[in-house]
Write a structure and sequence with these properties.
The complex is a heterodimer of chains A (108) and B (863). With 108 residues, chain A is mainly α. Chain A contains 4 helices and 2 strands. The chains are: A mainly alpha (108), B alpha+beta (863).
């Protein structure tokens, strides 16, 4: 199963991609992750996470080469990718069940 | 960043990564500003390869490697290596020395050649010089003022004049290096004050003499006392106010410099002399070629104004990166040494692999049993790799020590001839290199034996008495290839060592032209404040010479402004009456040496023709020339009575040649001799005493020092050296290189011999049964001996031939380091391989003799 080997940062990238809704490239993802995580994110880390996710079949990519502009590699979530995010969420939800109280929060 | 990206990702990814980084850089530049964005980009470029490498590695580590296994293997390896201490120590030491020496040299090459100078944006700083190929002169004050007034291509220009000065007051008088710098100097280099202030643009308008101390001199002379600010310091007899101490800096301009004074150069009356170094910062939007064109245009406008004192119309201005100017010619030497140590590391690795393969052969049974008991091939591999890891860690530890030691050695012995050594250090990057080299060696050391062993046929190895599986032809070929490789690497190293040593020998036997035995020299400089007039200085030198001549142990004494063989006088241009330079052509240039009349007798320089200088020579405007000068300008003709005007002057009086003396090496032992003019030295501010002594020169130096102090207590002797010291100094650099490469060559030779001996011993051991049968059937022991030796020579020969090829390929690197011998010297290229082969024969003979003496009955019974 792909999800079992999903790393922390890879999940972050998948979530950021989900937020972008359509296919995207590394620059908006770096900016979005920096905004959400509140710390600098290396483009190298994002790019490598994307290629690794691609190897796992969770995202797909294509190279767009406009005549004048810069070449860009666009990534989009695959069905397996969305499934993996969902599976992660469900797993987390099960793990968190009933723990809020122990952390001093009112609802659990 | 291109090259590593190309190595690690494909073309499409590389372009999209670059485009994305460029876009992010643009965004950050708009938000955070240029410097922050640039820092960010540098960081991204730095971390990218590590991310990519980490990704590659994590993808390639096979599943199922367990930590507890690793730990167990590690401990087991330690125990099993302890059982073969000689082998383990040999590998750890040889590979460690290779690793350490290579890391040390990488540090030196990085610190001296590759790292930018420690000045703000050093890549854009250039040296602007007077360009009359093949010479590169400094600027004159006239040139500098013109550049300062008109430099559209440059964002800043600065100038300095460097020289020895006498500092007195607050302790004993001493000679130190000082730089007289323009107000733009410190801002251009981006330097700050530690305390007080440095000079800035406002300095040029101020008239009060002020000085800035370097951090090192402030610590040395004032013990870091902050109250020096505002105090007076006497430099060459003039009182300066200390206005600041420079921040601690290790750049080539601070190194060895004691202090800076604010330049207030007098308005020049003629174009020369050319004593001013001009440095400039290129504007970012101007290319070097465009800048050069604009500079040359400035020079072109300047030329007619000073034509009366400078006619060389071909001379123009040039632009050279400051780093190249600072590093000079030392680059090829450092690369040669780095190549040599890298060879050494490879030889050490090849040798270690050879030993480990031999060991793996002996362990076939053990590994086969482990395999039979259920260990997977991966586990066996892991076990073998653990052993090489232990060896590599040991080698790395030795290497770290050697690296520290080799850097200290280079710093201690190379300080006089390698610039920027203060900037060499063992930093994070160098440690990274050590790690990388260790990893590479460990892979080399581990993979070859491991691959060999993983091919092991279990049943074959277990069959008692059967030929070991590892005696397979592939393994034998591998071991011989390794020994051949060692010889292929050792040959060029030994060739280089022999050539460099021969070159040193040639240098040491160069005829300097003057006697260096029982000669003592020492410099004295007269402060302009105390000896302002020419007559004061002339009187002092006269008095001093009389005093020195009367010292016990002094046979004769003279003055000179230069010292052979490599402390040369100035170069000067001149125009011959009989062979005037054509309009627009450069004038001839040669070495000018100022001497007092007694100089020739003192150093035993023979007069060939005409007469020597005397006390009236200055007024008469007469000079002597040497044989090389006569041969260059008037071959086969009379040279006495020829006249010229010096320094490009058109209205000066003619200078007349009255005598001809033998050649002397003034500009270096290996320099070509372009002629020397000897002019009378009478009223100069700085000169060397040159004494012929009757006893050892060192025994006279104390008396000389005292005599000078008695004449004027504010004067200090500098650069005291005997004639032999000066020769030693001139030979020090080539000797240093020779010893270094010689050491590497000897190590390489020993390792290669050990390699061939090991392989041949094993060969005899493996073939003892065949040999035994042969001998039992009446074979001739001498034929057995010949067979073994010839077998060894096969692969030694291949290695040596390849090595000669490598030596030929590398000859261009070596050419510039040699004197009196070519890098493709036939005798060396034939002699070294022959000698190497002869030594290899001896190494093969020992196992061969053992083979010939085998007792057939014993062997046949054993098997």
């Amino acid at each position: 199963m792909g999800t079992s080997t999903l790393q922390h940062f890879e999940l972050h990238v998948l979530l950021a991609m989900l937020r972008e809704r359509e296919e995207t490239y590394s620059v908006p993802l770096v900016l979005a992750l920096e905004k959400r995580m509140g710390r600098p994110v290396a483009q190298a880390a994002v790019f490598i996470a994307l290629r690794r996710l691609e190897r796992k079949g969770l995202v797909a990519s294509r190279l767009d080469e406009p005549d004048t502009g810069r070449p860009r590699r666009y990534f989009r979530l695959t069905k397996q990718g969305i499934a993996a995010v969902k599976a992660q969420r469900d797993e987390h939800a099960r793990l968190w069940q009933g723990l809020g109280r122990l952390l001093g929060e009112r609802k659990g | 960043m291109r090259w590593w990206l190309r190595a690690l990702v494909d073309e499409e990814d590389r372009r999209s990564i670059e485009a994305d980084l460029a876009e992010l850089y643009e965004l950050r530049r708009r938000i955070d500003g240029e410097p922050a964005a640039r820092r960010w980009l540098r960081r991204q470029q730095w971390i990218y390869p590590w991310h990519l490498l980490a990704d590659r590695l994590s993808a390639s580590i096979p599943r199922g490697i367990h930590m507890q296994h690793l730990w167990r293997d590690f401990r087991y390896s330690l125990r099993s290596l302890a059982r073969v201490p000689a082998l383990a120590a040999t590998i750890v030491l040889t590979v460690g020395v290779g690793l350490g020496a290579t890391t040390g040299m990488i540090s030196v090459v990085r610190g001296v050649l590759l790292n930018p100078l420690p000045y703000a944006d050093a890549g854009s700083i250039y040296w602007v010089y007077t360009d009359t190929p093949p010479f590169r002169f400094r600027f004159s004050v006239v040139d500098y003022r013109a550049l300062e007034a008109d430099h559209p291509a440059l964002s800043a220009v600065a100038g300095y004049q460097a020289g020895q000065v006498t500092v007195s007051g607050n302790g004993a008088a001493e000679r130190v290096l000082a730089r007289s710098v323009t107000g733009s100097y410190f801002p251009l280099l981006g330097q700050r004050a530690h305390i007080g202030r440095l000079f800035d643009a406002s300095e040029d308008a101020r008239r009060d003499p002020s000085a800035v101390l370097t951090y090192g001199y402030w610590m040395r002379r004032y013990g870091g006392d902050p109250s020096v600010l505002g105090r007076a310091i006497t430099i060459d007899g003039v009182s300066y106010t200390i206005v600041g101490v420079q921040e601690r800096a290790v750049g080539p301009f601070e190194n060895g410099t004691a202090l800076f004074t604010a330049a207030h150069w007098p308005e020049p009356k003629r174009k020369g002399p050319f004593f001013t170094t001009a440095i400039a910062r290129l504007r970012p939007d101007v290319s070097r070629t465009a800048a050069l064109e604009m500079l040359r245009a400035t020079n072109h406008r300047l030329f007619p104004i000073w034509k009366s004192s400078y006619q060389d119309e071909k001379a123009t201005w040039g632009l050279l990166p400051l780093q190249e100017r600072v590093v000079g010619k030392v680059g090829s030497r450092l690369w040669t040494v780095l190549a040599a140590v890298a060879c050494l590391l490879l030889i050490a690795c090849a040798n270690a692999v050879n030993l480990l393969v031999a060991r793996a052969m002996n362990r076939d049974r053990e590994l086969a049993i482990r395999g039979a008991l259920g260990a997977s091939r991966g586990r066996l591999l892991q076990h073998l790799l653990a052993e090489t890891t232990v060896l590599a860690i040991g080698a790395a530890a030795v290497g770290a020590g050697i690296a520290v030691g080799s850097i200290a050695l280079v710093k201690a012995y190379g300080v006089d001839y390698i610039p920027r050594l203060d900037e060499v250090r063992l930093g994070a990057v160098e440690i990274g290199w050590l790690g990388l080299l260790t990893l590479a060696s460990a892979l080399l050391l581990g993979l070859v034996p491991a691959i060999h062993s993983s091919r092991l046929r279990l049943t074959g190895a277990l069959a008692a008495g059967g030929r070991s599986a590892s005696d397979a032809p592939a393994t034998r070929r591998l071991r011989r290839a390794l020994v051949a490789t060692e010889f292929a690497l050792a040959t060029p190293l030994i060739v280089a060592a022999v050539l460099v040593a021969a070159s040193l020998d040639h240098l040491a036997h160069v005829d300097v032209g003057v006697s260096t035995e029982r000669v003592l020299t020492a410099g004295v400089s007269l402060p302009s404040g105390r000896y302002p007039k020419e007559s004061d200085r002339a009187a002092f030198w006269q008095r001093a010479l009389e005093r020195v001549r009367a010292l016990p142990g002094v046979q004769s004494a003279a003055l000179a402004d230069s010292r052979p063989p490599s402390d040369s006088g100035n170069q000067n241009n001149f125009n011959l009456e009989d062979k005037p330079a054509l309009p627009g052509q450069g004038q001839p240039v040669c070495t000018w040496v100022g001497v007092s009349p007694d100089f020739f007798r003192t150093v035993g320089l023979k007069l060939e023709k005409g007469r020597l200088l005397d006390d009236h020579s200055l007024q008469d405007n007469v000079v002597l020339v040497d044989r090389a000068w006569a041969d260059r300008f008037f071959p086969g003709q009379e040279v006495i009575g020829r006249r010229f005007r010096e320094g490009g002057c058109t209205e000066c009086d003619w200078t007349v040649v009255v005598g001809l003396v033998a050649n002397v090496r003034w500009t270096g032992l290996d320099a070509s001799q372009d002629g020397t003019v000897y002019f009378p030295l009478v009223d100069v501010p700085t000169a060397y005493f040159v004494l012929q002594t009757t006893t050892s020169p060192s025994s006279v130096s104390g008396a000389l020092r005292q005599a000078v102090a008695e004449l004027d207590p504010q004067l200090a002797l500098s650069d005291v050296a005997s004639g032999d010291d000066l020769m030693d100094e001139a030979l020090a650099q080539p000797r240093y290189l020779s010893v270094l490469i010689g050491m590497f060559a000897v190590t390489a030779l020993v390792l290669s011999i050990v390699g061939v001996y090991g392989v041949m011993t094993y060969f005899v051991q493996q073939h003892s049964r065949d040999i035994g049968i042969r001998l039992a059937l009446g074979g001739d022991p001498s034929r057995v001996r010949r067979m073994v030796v010839l077998h060894g020579l096969q692969f030694v020969g291949v290695g040596v031939v390849v090595g000669v090829g490598a030596a030929l390929l590398g000859s261009r690197l070596l050419e510039s380091l040699l004197f009196g011998i070519g890098a493709r010297d036939l005798r060396t290229l034939i002699g070294v391989p022959a000698a190497l082969t002869a030594v290899a024969v001896v190494a093969c003979l020992l196992p061969a003799r053992r083979a010939a003496r085998l007792d057939p009955s014993v062997i046949l019974r054993e098997s």
